[in-house]
Amino acid sequence: MVNLLSLTSAAAAASVSILDHTQTFAVDLTNTACTNFTPIEQFHWHATAAEAFNLTAVGSNFKVTNVQCGSVLSYAGSATGVNPVRSQPVGLAGANTVWNIVPVNATTFRFLESVSGTALTAWANKPTQDSNSSPLTLEANRVADDRQLFFFTTRTSSSS
InterPro entries in the record, alphabetically (predicted)? Predict the structure, then answer.
């Protein structure tokens, strides 16, 4: 059973996993690589260090940081102001990227990049090609797009 958290509980936690709309894949720093521009993807949730993030309030937004590496959930063009549409999220130490985490209900959220308003989007997993991972991208904010819904949980309530 997945223990879903409110935004208040997630922000107060030492670390959380961020689950996609299926609640089976987590936002994951690929190979827990502590190198700038390491892709952030969705990987089958195992509550690993690659999936451990904390939320730091920055005004009414949040900086999302991988606990082990200190990498910030960002995108490659964040420092130059490039439009992030269709960008893949990356881990970037020292990035100033913050997210407007919008509640849909008590335990479901949308991650909107605070400058562009683009939404973190989880792409469908293709079990015949790779059953463990799928890409994440930043896309236009579409309220009815379930792929843009995410959940917080504690790392100890893994489904594995």
Answer: Ricin_B-like_lectins
- Contact by Cβ (8 Å): 10, 53: no
CA 13 to CA 119: how far, in whole Å?
A: 23
Residue type, 144: A
- Cα–Cα distance list, 102 to 5, 95, 105, 132, 136 (Å): 14, 21, 9, 27, 18
Tokens 């089958």 — which residue? 44
Exposure of 1 by Cβ count < 10 A (0-12 exposed, 13-18 middle, 19+ buried)? exposed
The pLDDT, as a whole number, for residue 56 is: 97
Domains of the chain: 4-157 (2.80.10.50)
Nearest to 4 by CA among 159, 155, 158, 154: 154
Cβ–Cβ < 8 Å for 53, 17: yes
Rounded average pLDDT per 10-residue block, the chain, 160 residues: 91 96 93 92 91 96 96 90 86 95 97 96 78 90 96 71
